[in-house]
Amino acid sequence: MEVKIRKFIFAACTALPSVFVAAKQLPPDVYETWGICPFECCTYGEWIADARIPVYEKRSEQSEILFRLNPGEPADGLTGVVVTKNPAPIYIDRPIRDGFREGNETPLLALKPGHIVYFLASLGEGFYTFWYEGEVYQSGEALAALPGPKKNRMTSVWWKQVRNKAGQTGWTRSQKFQKMDSCE
Question: 70: Cβ–Cβ under 8 A, 6 or more apart, which residues?
Answer without folding.
Answer: 49, 52
